[in-house]
């Protein structure tokens, strides 16, 4: 915010200069013009006086007439100069007064106008979103101010509803999502989020209102992962496991959030088992060696399985971040389907690897853990402790 006010101050000063300086220099130009006019008047007087003296010498006018004419010329010169000085004085003071008035008016008006019409609240929201130390209460207070200021702003309502959900205030989140649904004229994202909030408020049970909302969302966006997740839950509750697997598998192919992917994968596995299918899965506990506690929190960790004894592409993989560790993850045929390199069930034995590459180049491994020759039918949890790569 400090940087913003510095920039705003510089812009205000620039605006003041653009308005004030022309008026100021115009005043100076007026002064210069007046000096020139005075000189012209005096020159004209001298020319007339010289002509009068010439006529006097030639006897064309009498000395008394010449004296009278000279007096008239002097009188006219004095009147012209006095009148010009009066106009100049008024113009000069007027220009300077206007310049001073505008110099004070611009900053005096800029601040209240900006506070009323500007994006001060939006800037505060941006800063708070980027600050991990901001509490839910502080964020909610700022977002409420934003929705009060911009009641038709969909982003403000979306963020506010999300904060209510994160804080566990589901009923307030529902109200915010309902407003979002109205503001966006029934957007698929608003319909899906509202359906999910109502689902949580209804003790994780689908009812007709929730069903109508997720169906509405999918009719407008067939790739909405939230709505697909609810569709799978609805089908699962009705024991239509095939439809549940289809909905969740599609959501899994689109979802990037790790927690959501894991939940979808668990649901698919459960539905397939209830359908009588055998689902291969590996349960893996991934952790860092104590000496690696200073690794960047956002450094990427890849956990994958590949056929033993061959440097083939991974069959199944899950991306993590260092901040996620320690964590138990599941690699199963659902994750394998996303890779398109076969299935875990078809492999006789597997090498399970967790790898960190700080440079982003997968060919240069900085830290790694590996367990070889894992039998897919062994249901024990695989332990991977990541250490510096040798």
Please specify the SSE layout and strand pairing.
Blueprint: H1 2-57, H2 63-117, H3 120-130, H4 136-149, H5 154-167, H6 170-183, H7 188-201, H8 208-220, H9 225-237, H10 241-254, H11 258-274, E1 281-288, E2 300-307, E3 316-321, E4 327-332, H12 333-339, E5 350-356, E6 367-374, E7 382-388
Parallel strand pairs: 1-7
Antiparallel strand pairs: 1-4, 2-3, 2-5, 5-6, 6-7
* Oligomer state of the chains in this structure: single chain
**Radius of gyration of CA atoms, rounded to a whole number:** 41 Å
Mean pLDDT: 83
SSE succession: HHHHHHHHHHHEEEEHEEE
Low-pLDDT parts are none
Biggest sheet: strands, sense, closure?
A: 7 strands, mixed
For the secondary structure, the number of strands is 7
Strand content: 5-15%
Straight-line distance between termini? 47 Å
Instruction: Indicate the percent of residues in helices.
Output: 55-70%
Describe this structure in words.
The mean pLDDT is 83. The chain has a seven-stranded mixed sheet with strand order 3-2-5-6-7-1-4. The protein is elongated and about 140 Å long. It has twelve helices and seven strands. The protein has 390 residues and is an alpha+beta fold.
Task: Briefly summarize what is shown.
By secondary structure, the chain is of the alpha+beta class. The protein has helices at residues 2-57, 63-117, 120-130, 136-149, 154-167, 170-183, 188-201, 208-220, 225-237, 241-254, 258-274, 333-339; strands at residues 281-288, 300-307, 316-321, 327-332, 350-356, 367-374, 382-388.
Give a quick set of tags describing it.
390 residues, alpha+beta, 7-stranded mixed sheet, 12 helices
